[in-house]
Specification:
about 160 residues, mainly alpha
Amino acid sequence: MGNLLFSPSGRISPSLYMKGMVVLAVVSSILQLLPMISPALGVLGIIGFVVLYCFFALSIKRAHDGGKSGWMSIVYFIISIVVSIIITVVIFTVFGLNFMDVISLAMSGDVEALESFTQKSIIPSALANLIVYPATAFVVNAMTKQDQHDNTFGPYGSTADTFS
C-alpha cells in the first residue's frame, strides 16, 4: 500500500483511486477525532500534511492513467476544496452549526467561544471528511477517463499497488 499512497509515479485505475481516497478519508477522520480523547493529541494533526501528500500522489497517478499531466492534480485539489465546503456546510447545518460562525469568532478574538465551537464541530468535521474524499474521487473519476492503452506513464492495466 505504501507505493499506492506515497509514490506519484505510474498510473492507477479508477477503483484503486477510490480505495486510496477511502483510506485517506478514514485516516483524516481519525486525526480529526483525536482531540476528543486528549487535547494534546491535536498535535498529531501535523500528520494531515502526510495525508495531503498522499492525496497528491494518488491524484497524480490518476491523472497519468487518463494520459494527463500530473499538474492536473491541482485541478483535482481545487475540486476537493469546493466539494469540502459544500459538504461541510450541509453537515454543519444538519448538526445545527453555522459554518460562518468560525470566521466571525476568529475575527472577534473570543478564544473561549472559538474553543467551544471547535469542540462542537469535531464530530461533524470528521463525518464531512468521510464523505469528502470519496465524493472527490467520484468527481475526479467521472472527469478523467481511463486511457485504455499504454501511455507515457505506464502500460495499461498496470497498478501502483493493490490492497490484496
